[in-house]
Amino acid sequence: MRKLSVAAFISVDGVMQGPGGPQEDTDNGFTLGGWTVPYFDETVGNAMDAILSDPYDLLLGRRTYEIFANHWPKLEGQDELAGQFGAINKYVATRNPDYTTGWKNSHVLKGDAVAAVRQLKVGEGRNLLTQGSAEFIQALLAADVVDEVHTLTFPVLLGKGKRLFGGGAAPSALKLLGSVTSPSGVIINRYAAAGAVQTGSFALE
Questions:
Q1: How confident is the model at residue 58 (pLDDT cuts 50, 70, 90)?
Q2: What H or E segment, with its residue span, contains residue 138?
Q3: Distance between CA atoms of residues 34 and 7, nearest Å
Q4: Which of 68, 122, 164, 204 is 20 to 30 A off residue 28, Cα-Cα?
Q5: What is the C-alpha separation between 77 and 97, in angstroms, rounded?
Q6: What's the alpha-carbon Rg for the chain, to the nearest Å?
Q7: Bridge pairing between strands 4-11 and 148-154
Q8: Where are the alpha helices (DSSP H) in 28-133?
Q9: Closest by CA position to 2, among listed 148, 110, 106
Q10: Quick one: pLDDT at residue 191?
């Protein structure tokens, strides 16, 4: 069975919108795009290298797919990651039944995207990795199909914007598999799904 991992850059208050540049995602008047850049040090880079070190295929929402498709193919032959992204499968979730792709090895998930992900997970192939794609990630979390979550929490408050956890995730316990703090203050955590939420009480008898 294929494992599905989510990797996300988030602010301390949970916003993941527009981490890479001012024009990356300006939906709803978001003006703080590029907020990860001042904190992107060697430790953060190494963490991303580790996330991308295992064989994987990308699972992306349409918006993130288009950002990637407009950037990475231009760097093929110049950048190792660009070549890696070009060679693997890219699965795209979109509500548009007529959506077409131009980037090689790209595949549109037809119909119910979450149902399509369930089918991918039980099939043969590399593990699945989702980056960006805030709305799609929330649907995956609500459907309880995510096996691991990688969070890179940057020391900044953004106030508003698209969030990693929007309140609709299926309840689940998580097991912390690893944690590193970078010199710039980015907290890098890796979690695995760990079954049902366990509860207790501090109330006096």
A1: very high
A2: helix 134-142
A3: 17
A4: 68
A5: 33
A6: 17
A7: parallel
A8: 42-51, 62-69, 80-87, 113-122
A9: 148
A10: 98
